[in-house]
Every structure is written in C-alpha cells, then in structure tokens.
Amino acid sequence: MTIHTIRPSSRQNTVRKTLVSRDCGPSGCEVDWLTSRQLETSDDIEAFIDFSLKQGWGDGLPLIPPTDARVRSFLAENDRYPDEVIAKMPDSSECTVEKIVINAVMAGAPVDSLELIIAAIEAIAEPDFELYGVNATTAPVYPGFVVNGPVRDALKIPYSYGCAGGVATRANAIGRAIRLTMRNVAGQVAGVTSQTTFGSPGRISGLLMGEWEEKSPWAPLAERRAGIKGNAVTAFSTMGTMNILDTTSTGAMAFLEMIGKSVAYPGANCFTPSMEYSEMTIGINPICAEIIANEIPDIEDVQKIIWKFASLPGDWLQDLHRGQVEAQGRIREDGRIYATPEPKDMVLFVCGGLGGLHALGLHSFGSSLSQTKSIATVVAASEVRASA
Predict the structure, then answer these.
(1) Residue 162 pLDDT > 80, yes or no?
(2) CA dihedral over 106, 112, 115, 117, signed as positive or negative
(3) CA distance 350 to 372
(4) What share of the chain in percent tops pLDDT 70?
(5) Which residues 6+ apart lie within 8 Å of 220 measured at CB?
(6) Contact 279, 268 (CB under 8 A)
(7) Do the beta carbons of residue 236 and residue 362 sit within 8 Å?
(8) CA 278 → CA 1, 12, 129, 270, 370, distances in Å?
(9) Which end of the chain is more exposed for a tag (fewer CB within 10 A), N or C?
(10) What whole-number distance in Å separates Cα of residue 270 and Cα of residue 267?
(11) Long-range contacts of the stretch 266-270 (C-beta < 8 A, 24+)
C-alpha cells in the first residue's frame, strides 16, 4: 500500500537583511520609477467606489483613492524601489512593489505594514502553495496568515480575543490589501478566473492573525516550521473558520480527541478523491494549550494524537467514493482514512481569548502547502549613518 507523503520544500528560506530607507518624498525622485497608468477621477470616496467597480479594481467596500501623492508617500516610508518584482503570479504577471503599494493604499493599510504584505505575497507565490488552484477552484478557499514576532504588537495584529475576526484594528486593512492584490494582480475574479461555488467573506477581508506566543507552551509556529525567530508570517490555505467547543473534557487526551474528531468530516477537501494529500491548520486556545502541555509537553506528540483522531473509517464512505480513495492507497491497514498523510501535516498554533475552551479549525484546500517567510525590518537611513 502506497501512501503519498508531503515532503518539505527544498527551497531554503533566506534570512532577511535589515533594510535602509531610501526616502524620495511624496514629490518623487529625480528618476520617476512609477509606471502604472494614471487616470483622472474624483477623490470623493463614494464616487471612487463606483469608479473602481467599473474599472474592475474594487471589492464593493469603500476604497481610498490611490493618488500619486498617496502612493509616493507610502513608498517614501519604506525601503523598496517601485519596480522591484516581488513575485510572479499564476498568469505569469509580475507583482511589483508599486502594484502592492497601490492596493495597500486603497485598502487603507498602515504604511509600516509593507514588509509584512510583501512577505505574505512571497509566501503564497511559492510553487508549493499552489496559488493557481487556490484562485481558480470551485472551493471557497483563500489564503490565511499567522504572524509571529514583535511585529504583531507593532501593527496591532490580534492574537487574543476575536483574533480571527471582529477586532477593531487597522491590521484588518492589511489582510484586505493582500486580497485586493490577489484580485487586481493575481486576477481572482469570481465567475471569470475563479469558479468558486459559494465564495467566502474571507475572499474580501482576508484572514490575518497573530500567534499568542507569550501564552504558548511551545515554540512559535515560524520557529518550529522554518527555524525563524522573530518576525515571520506563515501562509496557509483555508476554507474558513470552524469553531470547536468542548466544555465537558477535563484532560489533554479528551480535548485532543474532540479536536481531531471535529475536523474530520467526509465532505472536507482532505477526504476527497480529487486530492491525494492535505494539511490541516488548527488554532488552540491558550487555556486548552496549557492543559494539554501539562500532560503532553512535546508538540509533536500532540500532533500525533490529533492526527490519529482526525480520521474516518473507510466503510463510512459510499462505495464509489471509497473505491477511488482506496485506489490512491489512502485507506490504511487499520481501515481508516487520515485527514493528512502524516502527523507533521497538522499545523498547530496558539491563539484566542481566555473566556472559554475552544479550538479553531482551518480546513485546507488540499494541494496547497503552507509556507513560512521572515519579515524584513526597515531602519531609517539617518539611524544607520549615526551608528556608522
């Protein structure tokens, strides 16, 4: 019996260098690096919403007009040339810093969020993330992001109460900036380049949260996945958020059994014959994490236990479905089908408020593998000169 396993990418994650700001100011440099086509339109917000929809740029929510001055001001606070190519999109179009900044301005993202946005775009552009499938599929999938390091607090990225949505913070605009970039550069348009049957609210606002490292009994996600200490972002594909509530269990094994069994249901992409493998991302509430770690301190053991329970008996499935899955070698000797090929493919992190015993299920698209990237730090040129 052959089981297809998910192998780590052979690509090495380079350590981010400290960037030095090249400030040309809102009026621009002697050499004008901006190349995007400029159009005359009203700076009025309501008028611009209608204009953006006609142009195919908008998502239906209010946008800030990306005027020349606003785009230049955003660039002036960061260490990136506008024509720098960050990634190739699925249609081979080039995603430049200029294009990212234009979408960040429209979304209302903070100026100091650019390096996080760039790292997120780099992550989803990795071949193993399979952005083409995420964009074009009939599923409601979209990229989600978990942020590690001090940048969480600097950008007010939520990782406690309401971390998956509902916290009033400008960090929400960061997720939307990524979504607008995917719409306007990567070309994700429902019914045109995307065949998503239902879609998801996450395809407008995105999903960006932090890991509550200070409450985690384990090393931060980015450190465990990629050996990155400090500022980093992990991109994963998700169908949306699934709440797992357990007010009855009192011990680690009982909590993990509830989490594993809850995320395993026949209609999930990880059990479809069209996907040979999958990952599963799960956020664990800090209270649950503490209870679990007191009994099972090694997170690899935690992954193994959840993996064991995140499985279905093969005879649950209809004959045709079971036959197709069995032909892939996915029914194990114990007669069960596991959500992911191996325990390591259960991607765990700690987040959420302290008001109850919950876990957060984030089902994968299937063939999209999570990617972790470090986030560069910008230092003002004046500070570098002063220390030289």
Answers:
(1) yes
(2) negative
(3) 16
(4) 89
(5) 148, 149, 211, 213, 229, 232, 349
(6) no
(7) yes
(8) 18, 22, 11, 5, 10
(9) C
(10) 8
(11) 266/312, 266/316, 266/317, 266/321, 268/339, 268/363, 269/139, 269/141, 269/239, 269/363, 269/364, 269/365, 269/366, 270/339, 270/340, 270/363, 270/364, 270/366
Per-state percent for the chain, helix, strand, coil, to nearest 5: 35, 15, 45
Dihedral of the alpha carbons of 15, 17, 18, 24, in degrees to the nearest 10: -140
pLDDT in tens, 219-268: 999 999 999 999 999 999 999 999 999 989 889 999 999 999 999 999 88
Residue 329 pLDDT: 87
Average pLDDT over residues 41-65: 87
**Which strands make up the sheet holding 371-374, listed edge to edge?**
207-210, 142-148, 232-238, 371-374
Is this structure's pTM higher than 0.85?
A: yes
Q: Which residues pair with 190 in a beta bridge?
A: 194
Instruction: Name which of 238, 350, 368 is nearest 302 in CA terms.
Output: 350
Residue extents of the structural domains in the chain: 16-32+40-236+371-382, 240-364
CA angle 257, 306, 321 (to 5 degrees): 95
Tokens of 174: 């960061």
- What is the pLDDT at residue 356? 85
Q: What pLDDT band is residue 10 in, cutting at 50, 70 and 90?
A: very low
Which sign does the torsion angle of CA 40, 48, 175, 124 carry? negative
**Which among 259, 281, 258 has a CA at the least distance from the CA of 269?**
281
DSSP alpha helix (H) spans, the chain = 45-55, 68-76, 97-107, 114-124, 131-136, 151-154, 171-184, 202-205, 221-226, 252-263, 286-295, 299-309, 319-327, 381-387
Cα–Cα distances in angstroms (integers) from residue 111 to residues 84, 104, 273, 274, 376, in the given order: 18, 8, 44, 41, 14
Alpha carbon separation from 333 to 133, 135, 330, 337 (Å, rounded): 31, 35, 9, 10
What is the distance, to the nearest Å, from the Cα of residue 110 to the centroid of all Cα atoms in its chain?
Answer: 18
Q: Which phi-psi region, left, alpha or beta, contains residue 135 (left: φ > 0; alpha: ψ -120 to 50)? A: alpha
Reply yes or no on whether the pLDDT at 353 is more than 60.
yes
Contact between residue 79 and residue 20 where contact means Cβ atoms under 8 Å apart:
yes
Task: Assess contact for 108 and 62: CB atoms under 8 A.
Answer: no
